[in-house]
Here is the input.
Amino acid sequence: MIAITRDVSPSLARCELSFVQRSAIDIERAVAQHTHYCRTLRMLGCDVIALPALEDMPDAVFVEDVAVVLDEVAVMTHPGAVSRRQEGESVAAALRAFRTFRTVRTIDGDATIDGGDVLRVDRTLFVGQGARTNAAGIARLREIAEPLGYRVQGVPTHGCLHLKSAATLVADGTLLVQPAWVDVAVFGGLRQVIVDPEEEHAANALRVGAGVVHPACFPRTRQRLQDAGIDVVAVDLSELQKAEGATTCCSIVFARDASGSVQ
Here is the structure.
């Protein structure tokens, strides 16, 4: 597995916020938490490619939002926040080390889409339409992905920044979901683990191989995952959570085959 990450910017406190109240961020502690997060990815079997911080781009640590990596193609997104639209250049360069230039596609124009809104389950891409992703962005991703054999399904979200704030894949055929922010009926026959009602923001988890990375501050939901037979690794991301980030946001994780190409 490959994991692309980006170091924490010293300007993180100036991050974009939509559904979280601004509070003081301890940058030194955020850096330490991010370092431990990257160490956890390595422990779970990832080769971590750590890009340097972008000092004038506070949200750039949330690298997931600027690219969607599928088996056949990498798609550079057009983030819904205007301030984030220059973050992708170095990420695209890193992806081209694993994909030929012609397979790195770009979404632009009036279409907006954040990687945090794209939830892949096998060959279906559920795409949140809400705060950062619009209908044109979903349509553009559909134009790219459906000829490759994917099904792209728009999913309205409410009360949260991204679809992955409300639902993430934690095992084959199993989602961790926050039903207050998304109509869970859209996920059909998939098994669902519901977050504990006392832990509103607990639905974001990152599956890496056989393990799931989950914020340490949600022990009740972690217990629900463990009761469902899921191996959970708890990490402290409290300072990054103040910037409306979580476990999936801080990396782009994808598989590499024996020949060195991304699958």
